[in-house]
Amino acid sequence: MRNATARHAAEAQLGIGVVRHARLRPVAHRFAYPTYFLMLPMRSLAEQPAPALRRNRFGLLSFHDRDHGDGRADSLQWLTELLQHEGVSDADGEIWLHCYPRVLGLVFKPVSFWYCHRADGTLAAIVVEVNNTFGERHCYLLDGRSGAPIGYGRELQADKVFHVSPFCRIDGSYRFRFMRTDLAGAESQQRHGHRTVARIDHVDADGPLLLTSVSGELAPLSAARIRHAFFSVPWMTLGVIVHIHWQALRLWLKRIPFVRKPDLPANFVSR
């Protein structure tokens, strides 16, 4: 992978794609629906804002810093402090944030990904920021401290400690895999286009349980692309919330056991 942090390549992106989810047991349950998302080079944006990005103000699509981390006005500062506190000292390159935007001011972000690069473009860490429908948040920090190399295309793991679904216990682990072709150089872009995939599998003692992914084609954030995304799925945030509750109802009708909500994990960040 070539330098993923070069400032000339660090343009804000808007991805348009699909969310897929499959539950394998005790009964099969699958769905997929269209989606779109932001891919933001946060350090580049701190130096030069993107003209098309409505940041901390209303818009068809907008990004608000307080929707992340501890809710402060500068989410990049929060992320930088988190990395320092956790001993990640080499994430001195670009930090890309893959997240849902606000849509007409409405926000719900089930999961966001912070890709933290070194100056040479390699990955130093990934922070997976998870929100549940109870208004709670937890972060999984993926780095090389466990001995497993970190990088695009590699499988990364973390123990599951945070309650998300009332139909899943807090046990087992997550297996993550992240792929990107948009920053791999002009030759690769011509062959494969600008694309990203984030996959999260939940595995328990009996094997794979849930398979989830979000994928999409990336292109520079522009007023035209924002309009295209918005009018393709005009009420996406509301749709995400409706989809979550509709799928929960379907699972309940299939008699999937209900799991009572446990206490929050002791730490806001887990490895």
Explained architecture:
The radius of gyration is 18 Å and the shape is globular. A hairpin with a 2-residue loop joins strand 11 and strand 12 (207-220). By secondary structure, it is of the alpha+beta class. It is built from 5 helices and 13 strands. The two termini are 25 Å apart. The strands form 2 sheets. An 11-stranded mixed β-sheet has the order 9-10-11-12-1-2-4-6-7-8-13. A two-stranded antiparallel ribbon has the order 3-5.
Low-pLDDT residue intervals, each spanning 5 or more residues: 1-8, 183-192
Residue share in β-strands:
35-45%
- Helical segment tally? 5
Strand count, sense and barrel status of the largest sheet are:
11 strands, mixed
**Structural domain count:** 1
Radius of gyration: 18 Å
Name the features.
271 residues, alpha+beta, two-stranded antiparallel ribbon, 5 helices
Detail the topology: elements first, then pairings.
Blueprint: E1 13-23, E2 29-41, H1 42-47, E3 61-62, H2 75-85, E4 95-99, E5 102-103, E6 111-117, E7 123-131, E8 137-143, E9 155-159, E10 173-180, H3 186-192, E11 195-204, E12 207-220, H4 223-232, H5 236-253, E13 269-270
Parallel strand pairs: 8-13
Antiparallel strand pairs: 1-2, 1-12, 2-4, 3-5, 4-6, 6-7, 7-8, 9-10, 10-11, 11-12
